[in-house]
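Support request, please re-run this one:
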Amino acid sequence: MSRKTYTGEGVSVSGPYSHAADAGSTIFFSGQVAKNAPDYKEVTGSIEEQTKQCFKNLEKVLNTANATFSDVVKVNVYLTTMKNFQGMNAVYETVFSEPYPARTCVAVKELPLEADIEIELVVYKEW
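Re-run finished. Output below.
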């Protein structure tokens, strides 16, 4: 079986991985941090700013996979501190609405590229 992958236009990788891997009706999206956008210029460094950019990066990859945020069934959010939980949620609610996808949110010690947040998705789509 050959592996089908997707690459978002204008989105970089910070290691040896694909932006998304297709497993039939399920597509697994690698985590995105704000700095995965080569043209990202950090203005405030706020969690809200970084969260918005994570979703912009993910949307570019979703587009190449012919999917949208409404196809997302699972979200994993990694924060370097749970003090950013409320700010992340404020942006999250502008991307998703009820019924929300399943979600896990955990605090981690450190993320790539000195990010404060990383978001990954799982999409289910009947073709």
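The two ends are 19 Å apart (CA to CA). The CA atoms of residues 32 and 118 lie 5 Å apart.
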